[in-house]
Amino acid sequence: TLPSRVTLVEVGPRDGLQNRPEQIPLAARLRLLDDLAAAGLTVIETGSFVNPQWVPQMADSEAVFRQVRRAPGVRYTALTPNLKGFERAMAVAADEIAIMTAASESFSQKNTNCSIEQSLERLAPVAAAASETGVPLRGYISCALGCPYEGEVDPHAVHALTRALFDMGCYEVSIGDTIGTGTAGSMARLLDLILSEFPAHKLAVHCHDTYGQALANILVALQRGIATVDASVAGLGGCPYAAGAAGNVATEDVVYMLHGMGIETGINLPRLVDAARHVCAALDIPCASHVANALKA
Ligand code: HMG
Ligand code: MG
């Protein structure tokens, strides 16, 4: 059955901006965060604390966390791949952290410079520290529906990793279709397997829209009771370690679909479209969201 309310996890300020070729001015990152909070987003992945040699766009995430005006009721979250990242996130009082692993060995090596097994070993102390600090911990699994280097991915590997992340203490696991190759068919098969063990309210989907399948894949998740959806304003983004991967599904497009289905989000769509337009103007790029473009006239 469909959820009556869905939480959007806005990942644009992290997933969306991490892949831009240019260095994003701090003011533009702060403005985007303000606009998103004003539009009603309540969970905003604000930045990442990764090796700045690897992802220079996120190098000034400390400044972003320090200077953002924290809107009441909004969680400003951070991606932290290791203990060093965790400590940086705690130093600027991130409200929640996310850790990531991948369902494909090659992607794990390219993205985090270690095997899948080693990634779990690296994340265990982060999870322990999060638990000790009392900061909520979210988990990501990349390449859940396909890998840019290896192609097809075994759903059982994704299921096993989901279990590993819950065992580590994640309150929620986000199933990532990093390169957007999944379809309503492969998403249904994967979710049915995972949902045979874990409840829908502990899962989220994170769909990139490379093949235009994201909304269909999200619908499949909603039909299974999943009520948390990751999305990126203006469809910004892509992954630096997955050449050709498009951005996440645009938040505006997801909100339009949800409202059309009578599902509450708490988001003001016109204000969200304004946020999309502002950030695209600041970056001088065309807007990749259908809804923002449709409402242009
Ligand atoms: P490494 O190079 O193997 O780490 O990176 P290391 O421990 O050997 O350290 C090397 C150097 O980096 C050291 O500096 C560390 O101090 C420094 P040196 O001593 O040489 O001067 N360092 C750091 N500095 C600041 N903050 C840190 C940090 N860590 C190490 N946190 C590591 C390993 C995992 C850190 C690296 O591979 C990395 O940063 N990877 C992240 C790459 C990334 O951000 N990818 C994109 C995000 S994932 C994604 O987009 C997918 C997702 O959206 C879901 C989906 O779509 O599937 C989440
Ligand atoms: Mg992503």
Strand content: 5-15%
Average pLDDT for all residues: 96
The small molecules bound here are: 3-hydroxy-3-methylglutaryl-coenzyme A, magnesium ion
* Rg over alpha carbons: 17 Å
Give the total of beta strands: 8
The helix-strand sequence is: EHHEHEHEHHEHEHEHEHHH
Helicity, as a percent range: 40-55%
**What is the tally of helical segments?**
12
Structural class: alpha/beta
Strand sequence of the main sheet, in spatial order?
1-2-3-4-5-6-7-8
Poorly predicted ranges (pLDDT <50, ≥5 residues)?
none
User: How does the major sheet shape up?
Assistant: 8 strands, parallel, barrel
What's the overall geometry?
globular
Question: Alpha-carbon distance between the termini?
Answer: 36 Å
